[in-house]
Amino acid sequence: MLLPDPKPFSVTEWTDYVNLDVGAYGIAPRLDRESDWQSWAAIVVSFPAIAAKSPPNPYSFTDWREWATRFNQSTNSLS
């Protein structure tokens, strides 16, 4: 799974793209409020195939782009 770089996107745009990619692993809700990104991320990192890759805990980050970059690094070997 190769997720988009978060830098050029808003958090809602990036999560829309990611939802398409992680759909094979579970159903993630659409992120409507930017301030809810950590709750959205907690759902995504709980999908068993993703959790097995030890993704970063979103609640350990205040910057969603920093978390997303680390998340991308941890999940890039999913197929």
Description:
- The chain contains four helices and no strands.
- The chain is mainly α.
- The chain has one domain.
- The chain is globular.
- The termini are close together.
| Backbone structural class | mainly alpha
Total DSSP E strands = 0
The run of helices and strands is: HHHH
Query: Count of helical segments?
Result: 4
Structural descriptors:
79 residues; mainly alpha; 4 helices; globular
In short:
This protein has helices at residues 11-22, 37-45, 48-51, 64-75.
What topology does this entry show?
Elements: H1 11-22, H2 37-45, H3 48-51, H4 64-75
